Hints:
The chain has helices at 3-13, 17-20, 24-38, 43-52, 54-63, 68-72, 75-91, 113-126, 151-163, and strands at 102-106, 132-136, 169-172. The protein is mostly helical.
Amino acid sequence: MDDKQFRQLLNWFGLSWDGYRKVRKGVKKRIRRHMQQLGCQNMEAYFLSLDKSEELRLQSERLMTVSISRFFRDRHLWKTLENRILRSIIEKKRAEPPFIIASTLLVPGYVDKHEIGAIARYIAGLNPEIPYSLLAFYPCFHLNDLPTTSRTHALTCKEAAERQGLHHVHVGNVHLLGEDY
Protein backbone atom coordinates (compact mmCIF):
# COMPACT_ATOMS: atom_id res chain seq x y z
CA MET A 1 0.00 0.00 0.00
CA ASP A 2 1.46 3.31 -1.05
CA ASP A 3 0.66 6.74 0.38
CA LYS A 4 -1.86 7.49 -2.38
CA GLN A 5 -3.85 4.35 -1.50
CA PHE A 6 -3.54 5.14 2.20
CA ARG A 7 -4.95 8.62 1.55
CA GLN A 8 -7.88 6.98 -0.25
CA LEU A 9 -8.55 4.89 2.84
CA LEU A 10 -8.30 7.92 5.11
CA ASN A 11 -10.76 9.79 2.90
CA TRP A 12 -13.10 6.80 2.91
CA PHE A 13 -13.16 6.91 6.73
CA GLY A 14 -13.24 10.72 6.81
CA LEU A 15 -9.86 10.89 8.55
CA SER A 16 -7.11 13.48 8.18
CA TRP A 17 -3.75 12.84 6.53
CA ASP A 18 -2.19 15.28 9.03
CA GLY A 19 -3.18 12.99 11.88
CA TYR A 20 -1.50 9.96 10.26
CA ARG A 21 1.39 11.48 8.33
CA LYS A 22 4.02 10.61 10.94
CA VAL A 23 2.48 7.35 12.17
CA ARG A 24 1.20 5.77 8.96
CA LYS A 25 3.79 2.99 8.58
CA GLY A 26 2.37 0.68 11.25
CA VAL A 27 -1.23 1.41 10.27
CA LYS A 28 -0.51 0.67 6.62
CA LYS A 29 1.09 -2.62 7.61
CA ARG A 30 -1.99 -3.65 9.62
CA ILE A 31 -4.33 -2.67 6.79
CA ARG A 32 -2.22 -4.59 4.22
CA ARG A 33 -2.41 -7.66 6.46
CA HIS A 34 -6.21 -7.24 6.76
CA MET A 35 -6.53 -6.91 2.97
CA GLN A 36 -4.53 -10.12 2.51
CA GLN A 37 -6.72 -11.97 5.02
CA LEU A 38 -9.79 -10.87 3.06
CA GLY A 39 -8.21 -11.72 -0.30
CA CYS A 40 -8.43 -8.12 -1.53
CA GLN A 41 -5.87 -7.41 -4.25
CA ASN A 42 -6.54 -3.66 -4.44
CA MET A 43 -8.24 -0.78 -2.66
CA GLU A 44 -11.42 -1.03 -4.73
CA ALA A 45 -11.92 -4.65 -3.63
CA TYR A 46 -11.18 -3.66 -0.04
CA PHE A 47 -13.72 -0.83 -0.12
CA LEU A 48 -16.34 -3.22 -1.57
CA SER A 49 -15.69 -5.66 1.28
CA LEU A 50 -16.01 -2.89 3.86
CA ASP A 51 -19.20 -1.59 2.23
CA LYS A 52 -20.78 -5.05 2.36
CA SER A 53 -19.95 -5.85 5.99
CA GLU A 54 -20.35 -3.62 9.03
CA GLU A 55 -18.18 -6.06 10.99
CA LEU A 56 -15.31 -5.77 8.49
CA ARG A 57 -15.66 -1.99 8.45
CA LEU A 58 -15.38 -1.92 12.25
CA GLN A 59 -12.35 -4.22 12.12
CA SER A 60 -10.68 -1.93 9.61
CA GLU A 61 -11.55 1.13 11.67
CA ARG A 62 -9.94 -0.46 14.75
CA LEU A 63 -6.83 -1.19 12.70
CA MET A 64 -6.64 2.53 11.96
CA THR A 65 -6.18 3.40 15.64
CA VAL A 66 -2.79 4.62 16.83
CA SER A 67 -1.63 4.37 20.42
CA ILE A 68 -1.06 7.55 22.38
CA SER A 69 2.51 6.44 23.04
CA ARG A 70 3.16 6.70 19.29
CA PHE A 71 1.88 10.27 19.30
CA PHE A 72 4.18 10.93 22.26
CA ARG A 73 7.05 11.00 19.79
CA ASP A 74 5.52 14.06 18.12
CA ARG A 75 6.88 16.89 20.26
CA HIS A 76 4.59 19.55 18.71
CA LEU A 77 1.49 17.51 19.49
CA TRP A 78 2.56 16.95 23.07
CA LYS A 79 3.39 20.62 23.59
CA THR A 80 -0.10 21.48 22.36
CA LEU A 81 -1.64 18.95 24.74
CA GLU A 82 0.54 20.16 27.58
CA ASN A 83 -0.14 23.87 27.10
CA ARG A 84 -3.80 23.79 26.12
CA ILE A 85 -5.37 20.73 27.72
CA LEU A 86 -3.40 18.85 30.35
CA ARG A 87 -2.32 21.87 32.36
CA SER A 88 -5.93 23.01 32.85
CA ILE A 89 -7.03 19.48 33.80
CA ILE A 90 -4.24 19.05 36.33
CA GLU A 91 -4.87 22.42 37.92
CA LYS A 92 -8.37 21.27 38.90
CA LYS A 93 -7.60 20.03 42.40
CA ARG A 94 -9.38 16.82 43.29
CA ALA A 95 -8.03 14.13 45.60
CA GLU A 96 -10.24 11.10 44.98
CA PRO A 97 -10.65 9.77 42.46
CA PRO A 98 -7.72 11.40 40.69
CA PHE A 99 -8.82 13.74 37.93
CA ILE A 100 -6.27 12.30 35.51
CA ILE A 101 -4.67 8.87 35.37
CA ALA A 102 -2.14 7.82 32.74
CA SER A 103 -1.87 4.26 31.45
CA THR A 104 0.17 2.42 28.85
CA LEU A 105 -0.40 -1.05 27.44
CA LEU A 106 2.89 -2.98 27.59
CA VAL A 107 2.81 -4.65 24.17
CA PRO A 108 5.91 -6.86 23.77
CA GLY A 109 8.15 -5.62 20.99
CA TYR A 110 6.31 -2.31 20.74
CA VAL A 111 6.58 -0.64 24.16
CA ASP A 112 9.84 -0.95 26.10
CA LYS A 113 11.46 0.55 29.21
CA HIS A 114 12.90 3.46 27.20
CA GLU A 115 9.51 4.52 25.90
CA ILE A 116 7.97 4.10 29.37
CA GLY A 117 10.79 6.17 30.85
CA ALA A 118 10.20 8.96 28.34
CA ILE A 119 6.44 8.96 28.97
CA ALA A 120 6.99 8.90 32.74
CA ARG A 121 9.45 11.81 32.51
CA TYR A 122 6.80 13.81 30.70
CA ILE A 123 4.09 12.91 33.24
CA ALA A 124 6.39 13.67 36.18
CA GLY A 125 7.14 17.06 34.60
CA LEU A 126 3.43 17.83 34.75
CA ASN A 127 2.89 16.45 38.25
CA PRO A 128 4.73 13.52 39.91
CA GLU A 129 1.53 12.63 41.81
CA ILE A 130 -0.32 11.61 38.64
CA PRO A 131 -1.01 7.86 38.90
CA TYR A 132 0.55 5.81 36.09
CA SER A 133 -0.74 2.33 35.34
CA LEU A 134 1.30 -0.07 33.22
CA LEU A 135 -1.08 -2.64 31.81
CA ALA A 136 -0.16 -6.20 30.89
CA PHE A 137 -0.99 -7.08 27.30
CA TYR A 138 -2.96 -10.17 26.32
CA PRO A 139 -3.19 -11.17 22.63
CA CYS A 140 -6.94 -11.46 22.32
CA PHE A 141 -8.13 -9.44 19.35
CA HIS A 142 -5.32 -7.54 17.64
CA LEU A 143 -1.67 -8.57 17.61
CA ASN A 144 -2.68 -12.11 18.51
CA ASP A 145 0.68 -13.40 17.31
CA LEU A 146 2.46 -11.79 20.28
CA PRO A 147 3.03 -13.22 23.77
CA THR A 148 1.50 -11.77 26.90
CA THR A 149 3.62 -9.20 28.71
CA SER A 150 6.24 -10.93 30.84
CA ARG A 151 6.63 -10.23 34.55
CA THR A 152 10.24 -9.11 33.93
CA HIS A 153 9.14 -6.68 31.19
CA ALA A 154 6.45 -5.19 33.44
CA LEU A 155 8.74 -4.78 36.45
CA THR A 156 11.55 -3.30 34.34
CA CYS A 157 9.10 -0.75 32.92
CA LYS A 158 7.75 0.02 36.41
CA GLU A 159 11.27 0.72 37.65
CA ALA A 160 11.96 2.93 34.61
CA ALA A 161 8.84 4.99 35.38
CA GLU A 162 9.69 5.32 39.07
CA ARG A 163 13.24 6.47 38.22
CA GLN A 164 11.67 9.44 36.44
CA GLY A 165 10.12 10.63 39.71
CA LEU A 166 6.56 9.32 39.55
CA HIS A 167 5.20 8.45 42.99
CA HIS A 168 2.27 6.22 42.02
CA VAL A 169 3.26 3.63 39.41
CA HIS A 170 1.15 0.48 39.27
CA VAL A 171 1.27 -2.69 37.17
CA GLY A 172 -2.24 -3.66 36.15
CA ASN A 173 -3.63 -6.96 34.85
CA VAL A 174 -0.97 -8.86 36.81
CA HIS A 175 -2.94 -12.06 36.34
CA LEU A 176 -2.03 -11.84 32.62
CA LEU A 177 1.73 -11.60 33.13
CA GLY A 178 3.59 -14.45 31.45
CA GLU A 179 7.02 -15.99 31.41
CA ASP A 180 10.10 -14.21 30.06
CA TYR A 181 10.55 -14.02 26.28
